[in-house]
Every structure is written in C-alpha cells, then in structure tokens.
TrEMBL record:
CDD domains listed in its UniProt record: M28_QC_like
Organism the protein comes from: Lithohypha guttulata
Keyword Acyltransferase: yes
PANTHER family in alphabetical order: GLUTAMINYL-PEPTIDE CYCLOTRANSFERASE, GLUTAMINYL-PEPTIDE CYCLOTRANSFERASE-RELATED
Matches recorded under InterPro entries: M28_QC, Peptidase_M28, QC/QCL
EC number: 3.4.-.-
Protein's name according to its UniProt entry: Peptide hydrolase
Catalytic class of the enzyme: hydrolase
A Pfam family it matches: Peptidase_M28
Protein keywords: Acyltransferase, Hydrolase, Metal-binding, Protease, Signal, Transferase, Zinc
Gene3D superfamilies: Zn peptidases (3.40.630.10)
Domain of life: Eukaryota
Keyword Transmembrane helix: no
Length: 383
C-alpha cells in the first residue's frame, strides 16, 4: 500500500450509492457478556492456531504462499463449515521476474441466508491482503497484513453461531423472506494476493489480486432477474483492514465520504468497547477519532493506494481502515511477529466482530458467553 502525494483521479461512481440502512445497535449486555471474544491463544505468535501460520514470508507463487492459503481453507472447513470457500486465480508478469508468469490466488469465503440464491444476496465484505513483500529477504509483514487476516478470521467465527440462530429463527417463523435487503444479507471474506509491489509501486506493479478480482467480478453476471447484476454489485460494503496490530498510536481518518456513516458506527463501537472496559490495549489511544466529522467536511479519499482502488473505481462503497501515519516498521524487516501488540490485535478483532454483528443485525441472537472467556477481560467491569 502506498500514500500518494498527488491525488489520483478515480471515478467515484460510488457517490451514486446511498448510505445503507443496515445497522442495529448491540446492547451493553451483549457486548459485556455475550459476543465471543477472541479465544485466548488465537493470536499467540508462536503457537496461535489462527495467527502463527500466517507469520511467515508469503510472496506470491511460493510454497509458503500456498501453505497460508491452505491454512485459510482448513480454518474455514473446520471452524466455519457453513461457509462456501472458493478461489479466484490469475497470473501476471512482474518487473522482477522477466517473462515468467507469477500466479496470484485470492481466497474467498462467503455465507448468506440459506433461502437466498447468490444473485439476491448482498454482502458485508471484510478484506485484507495475505501476501508479503518480495524485499527485504525474510520480510514477514506482521501488520502488513498477517494480523489483519487473523483479526478477520477470529471476528467471523465470533458471529457465526448468532448468524445461524438468526437465520434459523427467521425460517422457523416463516417470514416472507423474498426481496428484502435485511433478509438477504450475507457476509464475505476476501484475502487478496499480490497487493505488494515486487519492485516499486506503480499501477501495474501492485494490487495484482485485487485488480484481477474486481475486473472478473465486474463481468460476472448473475441471472437476469437477480437483485444484483454482477458479483461486484453484490458487495454492499467493502471493509479493508491494513497496517493494523502494532502498539503504536496510529489514528485512522475517515477517508471516504460515501461510507462515513459506517466509519461513525465503528468509531462509536470503539468508544463503547473502551468505556465498558472491554479492550485490553492501551486505553489512552483512539483508533477512529473522526466520529464527529461532518459529511460536508473534506475527505482525502483519493490519496491512499491500496486493494480497494479497483473496487472503488467500479462504484463499490469502501470503508478503508488504514492509519494515515504508517507503523514505524512499515516495509522494514522489523515488521515481524514480535512487533505485534497482541492486546491490540485482539481488540481489533473484537471491534470488527461487533461492527459486523451490528451490520448484520444480530442483537438478541448471541448466547451467554462461557464463563472462562470472562477471565480475559483485564479489569473489573464497571457495573
Ligand atoms: C486456484 O488455485 C488454487 C491453489 O493452487 C487451486 O487449488 C484452485 O483449484 C484454483 N482454482 C481455480 C478456480 O482455478
Ligand atoms: Zn505493504
């Protein structure tokens, strides 16, 4: 990912999309006692079943890259069997590999209500890139973006049972489930390959996987009578996590005017989780400080180059969760496992889960949390 000094002209077809209405607030009770927190060892950097397997160099086309891809597949098969897993593959030449075609493999996992056919489901789409940079040798990219992938994996597991309960109840009650946005909303995870430039960031040496996927999905038509015309259209909100997980204070601005409403919801959730004492990271930080920014204020929406660009260019509403000042170890060998602040990784995962639960309107569908999980909360909870 790269910050451009000159604004890049991107056709913001997205402006045509009105803010979604999807959203209903979770109660304090649900946040405190119900929504599952990340499991205690999820993010152990040596043995954590979610994070540790991603903390290896993952250059596109290498054996390690395939191992990490396989880790995602196994995780969804074992932990999230209701999800549908697929890939979108492409190849491209790169500036460092001459005439050789390098393979790029995007990982896609999707779940929508059982009564909905694919073309009628709209998605909350959670996205991170899983490749790591070619240089320097041995580069891990723990914040860039191994940790964001792990945050998303844990977050979707936290809401999965509540989704099942909600959809089961809707079916049991025999609601009229046709052609209603709320009743046809699903969730999707994209782990994209080839985000990093091999040599230096240009339009053709960067975001290989994202460019290929956006182009393909733009052409992938659903059957004629579907709610959504293409696979790209069925993304309601593209939430991109990048450069998260170290302990430095790196505030994230609200980058996009047309999704400012979703930033505000997430910022509100951050402050609620902090005020309820449910975060373990440095309590003095605020990750999303622009909750009160006005809709007609200035948005720096075209300066940050990242995987969302080919989607935004095609009108996909995007919430970009990337700090404006990058981690001090950005693109250095020091962006390794030890650089991560695990309480920060856990808290981001909880925040992502809670945001998704509100987006998918899951209040009332969480069970009491098993007692053991409460011991993870740092201090006494306020009454
Ligand atoms: C994409 O690549 C993966 C990993 O090599 C492979 O398992 C899968 O079958 C490929 N998918 C398609 C649709 O070609
Ligand atoms: Zn990077």
């Amino acid at each position: 990912m790269r910050l451009c000094s000159a604004a890049v002209a991107v056709v913001l077809l997205a402006l045509q999309c009105l803010p979604g209405t999807a959203y209903s607030t979770l109660s304090d009770e649900t946040l405190k006692n119900k929504i599952p927190r990340p499991q205690s060892d999820d993010f152990d950097i040596k043995t954590g079943p979610i994070l540790a397997p991603i903390l290896v160099p993952r250059v596109p086309g290498t054996e390690n890259s395939l191992k990490v891809l396989n880790h995602f597949v196994q995780y969804f098969r074992n932990e999230l069997p209701e999800w549908t897993v697929s890939f979108q593959n492409s190849t491209s030449k790169t500036p460092t590999h001459g005439n050789k075609e390098i393979p790029f493999r995007n990982f896609i996992a999707t779940r929508h209500p059982p009564w909905v056919v694919a073309g009628n489901a709209g998605y909350l789409t959670l996205v991170a890139h899983y490749d790591s940079k070619y240089h320097p040798d041995g580069f891990i990219g723990a914040t860039d973006s191994a940790a964001p992938c792990a945050m998303i994996m844990s977050a979707v597991r936290s809401i999965d049972a509540a989704l099942t309960r909600k959809w089961q109840k809707m079916q049991d009650e025999g609601l009229d489930l046709d052609f209603d946005e709320e009743h046809s909303r699903g969730i999707q995870v994209l782990f994209l390959d080839g985000e990093e430039a091999f040599q230096s960031w240009t339009a053709t040496d960067s975001i290989y996987g994202a460019r290929s996927l956006a182009e393909e999905w733009d052409q992938a038509m659903y059957p004629a009578m579907s709610t959504y015309k293409t696979m790209l259209n069925s993304i309601e909100l593209f939430v991109l996590l990048d450069l998260l997980g170290c302990g430095e204070s790196l505030p994230i601005p609200s980058w996009m005017q047309n999704t400012h409403w979703s930033y505000q919801h997430m910022a509100e959730m951050e402050s609620r989780l902090r005020n309820l004492g449910l975060f373990r990271s440095d309590p003095k930080q605020t990750w999303l400080p622009e909750k009160d920014k006005k809709n007609d204020a200035h948005f720096n929406q075209n300066i940050m180059q990242d995987d969302h660009i080919p989607f935004v260019a095609r009108g996909v509403p995007t919430l970009h969760l990337i700090p404006s000042r990058f981690p001090s170890q950005w693109h250095k060998i020091g962006d390794n496992a030890e650089y991560l602040d695990i309480p920060t990784v856990e808290d981001w995962s909880l925040l992502t889960a809670a945001f998704a639960a509100e987006y998918l309107e899951l209040e009332g569908y969480f069970d009491e949390r098993p007692v053991a999980q409460d011991t993870l909360v740092r201090d006494e909870l306020p009454p």
